[in-house]
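Summarise this fold before class:
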Amino acid sequence: MANVTAQQREKVIARTSVISIIANVALAAVKAAVGLAVNSIAVILDAVNNLSDALSSIITVVGAKLAGRKPDKKHPLGHGRIEYLSAMIVAGLILYAGITSLVESVKKIIHPEPADYSTLSLILISVAIVVKLILGLYVKKKGNSVGSAALAASGKDALFDAVISLSVLASAIIFLTTGVSLEAWAGVIIAVIIIKSGIEMMIETLNDIIGHRTEAELTAAIKSTITADPQVLGAFDLFLYNYGPDKYYGSVHVEVDCSLTASEIDTLDRRVQQTVYEKHGIILTGISIYAVDNGSDETALMRKTVIEKVMAHDYALQVHGFYVDPTEKRMTFDAVLSFDCDRDAALRELHDEISALYPGYTVYIQPDIDVTE
């Protein structure tokens, strides 16, 4: 996504949605007039679909406007997630339109009524297809450029509409050339496509609301930025918390040399936070420190032995944050475990194996979730 301010993003969404609303209302009016004139259920349902698109665009504009409101006392992290709710409403409208269209099409299959196409009606449908293609590509491109899921979905839906209108045109041509009426069946196809689009959009939006794995490219880029600092030996357990499209807060664990002072760690912490924000626009609300002892051969050997022992298991994906205190006989480390294993059983097995290797040591193993690897 290009770097745009919240104000610019809101303007792009509003302007694109207004264009979409005007185009869809015009197309709906033209198609409804044609559908009623030629007695075509497929064309009428296509018009209804365009009308639902216009309503969806209105909801998208309202959602973006509400999501852009500044943080307040009740919502200190802003209102960005409202966009997900607006996308869910749009998905619900699309799904409703699809189900309604399916019911009407089935009725026409049971009680068929022949259509009466004219040359003008075919020309208008053809023009509508071209307009929808151009509109769909434009809206989808604008939605992707500003990271608006609702807008991008509207563009994708517009491209589906072009295909739908094409099927209507094809059924009309078949009827005129062969006398075989596929009107109602074309309506069924339209309805199924609309329903499928609504379900897919609803699932995608639900995933955004529930929370899903962050894109690997983004997490890799952030970790690369963090580890580029000369005092950072490793970056792990990066968690990103989403509060709207491209609005993230995060936390991360970093490994540093155990000889660093509190003052040096504080300076490092602030430097990493500033760098990540400048490069990725992400606010790291917490950076936890893992101390690494690189000066002891005994510690280095223990780390190597433990890592090899743990990574010998298929369910172990990574070991980090290793620290040992020979005086207190205490060992701690984090193990990233696969979702496919019994985490409790795996943790017990690892604890027993490491404790057997180093009797007398108290072993603490933190089982981490495979979030970004």
Q: What stands out?
A: The chain is about 65% helix and 15% strand. The radius of gyration is 29 Å. The chain has a mean pLDDT of 82. The domain at 6-210 is CATH 1.20.1510.10 (Alpha-lytic protease prodomain-like).
